[in-house]
């Protein structure tokens, strides 16, 4: 592994498609595209700014059946689809009539992102991070993670032929360790909690010029991958923005990027600029953004997470304030649900639509239910739920909840009796 | 649950699209479309016969991004996409350059069917079975299963709002029980082995006129779903048939249907009628078809399975003789691999392409490797590997094989040491 970064030379030559510079979120300071994530001017997160030019529906429709069809709207090279990477996206948008009926709403869709290569939306952000990191001269893909991100990084690096360094807490469940280790990168278990692992990642990112920590030093590019969820929903609805969308909140990045995606589509004239409301979903055991929303605060008070929805368990969400802005601007709301409600959300989606989601999806379904019951989600307006991860990865959540109806001897009579026939 | 079948009335009214009758595989006896699976004339399996009329590429391309785009080639109603069902298919065809290099071949593709709703190709066959069963007046979807099929049936029934009856051996691993039970159908654990469960299913199918056992009484329709694997591969290659394809063998149905799919596409003029070779893959611990092929036999001697590739562990494969016919006719071959080779196949695919397959996929990759090394697969001809299920469902296969490179304290120095930096 050799360092290949030289900011003076690479900046001039990087091809990140329509991306032109980085802008600080607070005061709008501008700086050239580089693998940096915090503004030295105002210490706020850096975000990618673009010059899209003209983008037509036909350009998108002529592209591949994955997120690279939106390459003219992402910070990736113009020939991104020719370079080895995963091909996430174009997952199903399912008309959920049975769930709609159960929830008492008229029109409901489920965006089922379990169909991605490693079965979560993280494949989207990691694919964009990998594409951008390659342009900056990195040769190693890295992350701290407790699950979905570890899978996505290890798989994408394997596909690209890159080294990977994935840091996990040593207490992580064996299943999550296996599903990352199988890709044969450098998986390192760290004796410590996720905060320790995260701190270590930031330290290592500063030391290794050739290590792209997807959610640290290339985070501005990485996070743009979530916009593709909005693009796909709008395209799959027949080029229009849904009236309401419910998004789970971990760092909060995904929610703000879904909103950004809709706004970009409207601004480019790809869809009509119709109003929409963005709703946020948290688990009660880690609900700092929901609490801030409820209390009318602009800042988010960090919490110590305690919930089964571990993929959402970020106690100090970096994009919390921006989530509050987005939800308030669009007229949405944020709610949180108990772990028991999360499990019921998982089961409700499974039994009505045959879609088995991880705990984060249970949070989204249960929160939607609560918001509908509270009259905050309009039952007559069309709603989309983002289901971002797979139930196979969080089996422990339902372990004590579901099972066979009966165990019987191998006879038809016994089966009939068990079924009350 | 009420019986709704009346063969005299339903036969006249069923709309199964291009399907016109059932034909016995041995002697070609014809009979009307009905929920029957064995010919009363010659006791051979019944297969669907069609009158396709004209089918153009544009008809297919105008369809949805799932198997219903091929509805004019399947035994399903003309309006199938409007009826609640899962929407499997249109999974990724991945250009596998790194795996190709590792195996020493020029051009290799992986059909990654882990992207289906319940992450195996079984969603394809179950969706077709459900669509046909509805036309015949059934209202309950059922199966005996040890895994993937149970997931697919329970999920599809949930989505359709049907009852389901899924029979599993009571010894089944907890994970597979959970991933079926979550859909909240009638999951019944049976004290007995898979053979006992299978016998029980046949008995129950005869007793319950409204229970569609997907792989028993509606098997002729069910099995046609596997043709869509061939259709998709051909369409995704730019409307052409690959020169070589490697298919895992359980009952053997999938392999024969992939061949049927290619032949139909060629006959309809959707692709050029170019020659292709079909290769079969088995685990050494359950290799009755491979053994028959090696010994030049036309019949398959049943075996007692003993392999980690449990989704392929059918000791008496119903379509074994037809597999032999297909492979010999096309000039292919059949091989089998040890459980150790299966695990290495899983790991090879994961580390080269970032795709984590179940044991059946490991069988396919390892068998391809063996056939290439033996010179039976031409390294200069284009090859497609069918990866039909997901590694998340068979974690036990790699449990003792992979893990973190090291467990370290939370310090950069410790990470460096672990990585030899």
Automatic annotation (TrEMBL), chains A, B:
CC cofactor: pyridoxal 5'-phosphate
InterPro entries linked to this entry: Ser/Thr_Dehydratase, Thr_synthase-like, TrpB-like_PALP, TrpB-like_PALP_sf
CDD domains in UniProt: Thr-synth_1
The enzyme's E.C. designation: 4.2.3.1
Tryptophan synthase beta chain-like PALP domain mapped to chain residues: 88-389
Keywords: Lyase, Pyridoxal phosphate
Molecular function GO terms recorded: threonine synthase activity
Top class in the EC scheme: lyase
Family: Belongs to the threonine synthase family.
Stated name of the protein: Threonine synthase
UniProt source species: Amycolatopsis thermalba
Gene: thrC
